[in-house]
Specification:
The chain is built from ten helices and no strands. By secondary structure, the protein is mainly alpha-helical. Helix 5 runs parallel beside helix 8 and helix 7 packs across helix 8. The longest helix is centred in the middle third of the chain and has 27 residues.
Length: 216
């Protein structure tokens, strides 16, 4: 990661953003426990006292990173759900966005179910809150599909939980060079599982999905 030195008169906002960006980079490469505050300060090119002035603990810093990522993901998935399109298309779009978001950050993958023992209770609570919100959006998509006869009769809450779990595991276990194939498999497997019999056609990743994945 290339980091430019901040000018002497950099604002508090700029310094905070620099620290969060550096932390996101490090958490993208390894899990929560492996990231040290020394590494963050070095990557952000800030003095340790500066780092601790903004974030007194590693958990506080991770919460900032994960809140930012999951808030963006929640908004992204909600935007997909609000589009005027068939429920299968909305579901496909939501799955794609969750998978790609989790693929960006190793630490978030491990924290996504809110059970990471290395996080404090405050961290686990924050993660669970965001994940519940994302799951609720997926449930709305599934309910809309069931009501429209596009999805078969399913338990939408359990199905939404299973879909997010599949996204997490696929993102965690897919080798970097095979993420496009993992996304395609996930989409096909999931969509075939919920589609009504009359609509049971493959729901594969589009060329746009695969191109964007290769560029990440």
């Amino acid at each position: 990661m290339s980091v430019e030195t901040l000018p002497a008169g950099a604002s508090a906002t700029e310094r905070r953003r620099r620290i969060v960006d550096a932390a996101l980079h490090l958490f993208s490469e390894t899990d929560y426990g492996a990231v040290q505050m020394d590494d963050v300060a070095r990557t952000a090119v800030v003095a340790k006292p500066t780092l601790y002035r903004y974030f007194p603990t590693k958990e506080a810093l991770f919460l900032e990173v994960i809140e930012q990522l999951l808030a963006e993901l929640e908004a992204d998935v909600a935007s997909v759900a609000a589009q005027d399109c068939p429920a299968p298309d909305s579901l496909r779009g939501a799955i794609r966005r969750v998978f790609l978001a989790l693929s960006r950050c190793t630490a978030v993958i491990h924290a996504f179910d809110g059970a990471d023992g290395q996080l404090g209770e405050k961290g686990r609570t924050a993660v669970r809150r965001r994940v519940r919100s994302i799951r609720t959006v997926v449930e709305r998509i599934l309910s809309r599909g069931v009501e429209a006869g596009q999805f078969r009769a399913i338990e939408v809450d359990l199905t939404a939980t299973a879909i997010l779990g599949a996204c997490r595991m696929s993102a965690a276990l897919a080798p970097a060079g095979r993420r496009s194939a993992a996304l395609e498999t996930l989409l096909d497997f999931t969509c075939r599982g919920v589609l009504a019999a009359a609509s049971a056609e493959p729901c594969l990743a589009s060329p746009k999905d695969l191109t964007e994945d290769r560029n990440r």
